[in-house]
Amino acid sequence: MAQTVRIDPAAHTALNEIARAKRLSLTEALARAIELYRRHLFLEQMRAGFAEVCDNKDAWAEEVEERRLWDTADRDGLDRE
Question: What confidence tens digit (pLDDT) does each residue in 31-44 have?
Fold first, then answer.
């Protein structure tokens, strides 16, 4: 179901330019922009979390140990080809 969202005139102009340049509807251009921003926020949060782990010696040691354990998880007794 379609919803109405109010945006400022500058944002509307930019959205129109993007839609025209990519030959998209305003709805599709907005949906793509929102998805890109959602991914950007996800990566920002992931980077922040990783930085937090890296800054904490105990947390980093735990991360290294967990990686070591996972590195052995795929060994099934077969030699690598």
Answer: 999 999 999 999 99
Residues 6+ apart with CB under 8 A from 27: 2
| Cα(13)–Cα(10) distance, integer angstroms | 5
Q: Is the dihedral of CA 61, 66, 71, 77 positive or negative?
A: positive
Question: Residue 59: which residues within 8 A CB-CB, separation 6 or more?
Answer: 52, 53
Model pTM score: 0.69
* Gyration radius of the chain over CA positions: 22
Q: Please report, as a single letter, which amino acid is at residue 72.
A: T
Count CB atoms within 10 A of the CB of residue 18: 16
